[in-house]
Each structure stands twice: as structure tokens, then as C-alpha cells.
Amino acid sequence: MWDGTGYWTGEPRKLMLIWCRQNDVYQILRIVKETDENAYVTNSSVRSVYGNGFDRLKLKKSSLP
């Protein structure tokens, strides 16, 4: 959660950024609608998310000696 300011209104706002798996989108959208019917929601494809609950970060060994 971040504190934000409405661009046009100058009103204080809360901003939430969520990364989720595709099969969780419907449940999150339902929660958003129940919480704030005026909320703005964007949805975009992400190639990878690494960390807790998602893929493990994998690094290739360097080819340098």
C-alpha cells in the first residue's frame, strides 16, 4: 500500500499493487468490488514474478573463470 494523491482532485488516495496468479484474478476483483465499487483496476500480463509464493529466482552460473 502506498499513499497517493488523485491527479485531478488532489485528494489523498491509497494505492495497492498486487501480483497474483491468473487463477486468483476473479477472487481479487470480487474483493475489490465489494470493498470499493469506484476503485480503478488495471490488469496486465507479467512474464515472471519471483519470491515468496511465486517462482524461485534461478540464476545461471557465470561462464567467466
C-alpha geometry: extended
Instruction: Look at the helices and sheets and give the structural class.
Output: alpha+beta
> What fraction of the residues are assigned to beta strands by DSSP?
5-15%
Beta strands, count: 2
Strand/helix succession: EEH
Q: What share of the residues lie within helices?
A: 10-25%
Provide the spatial order of strands within the biggest beta sheet. 1-2
Question: Would you identify the regions where 5 or more consecutive residues have pLDDT less than 50?
Answer: none
Helix segment tally: 1
Helices and strands, with pairings:
Layout: E1 2-5, E2 12-15, H1 25-35
Task: Please characterize this protein's 3D structure.
- The structure is a single chain.
- The chain has 65 residues and is α+β, with helices and mostly antiparallel strands.
- It has one helix spanning 25-35; strands at 2-5, 12-15.
- The chain contains one helix and two strands.
- A two-stranded antiparallel ribbon has the order 1-2.
- Strand 1 (2-5) and strand 2 form a beta hairpin.
- The longest helix has 11 residues, at 25-35.
- The protein is extended.
- The N and C termini lie far apart (43 Å).
